[in-house]
Input
Amino acid sequence: MLTVIYLAVLIAIFAGMWKVYVKAGKPGWGCLIPIYNAILLLEMAGKPTWWILLMFIPVVNLVITIIVSMEVAKRFGKSEGFGVGLALVGCVFYPILGYGDAKYMALPPSAPSQM
Output
């Protein structure tokens, strides 16, 4: 019985993540492939793909995950606190983001300052 509940929760989490990826114009199935998942998140956050290497360094990976999650939340019109929630309690926040009414907004690259 516990296994059935666990699988149901897991499916709900992946379904929420799938919807987040689709909202951002990425393939939904990408959330199921571990490293590809991180690359797609980096693209959603507008961060360079080489940051994937930073995700393999202990402690640094926690900081990068929070930064990327905060940027993903920002692009969906959510607060930085919501981004921290994505990083630390993704099993709750990704379904909220996926099933909610948030829309993905790809931010244009910031223009260099004129000094």
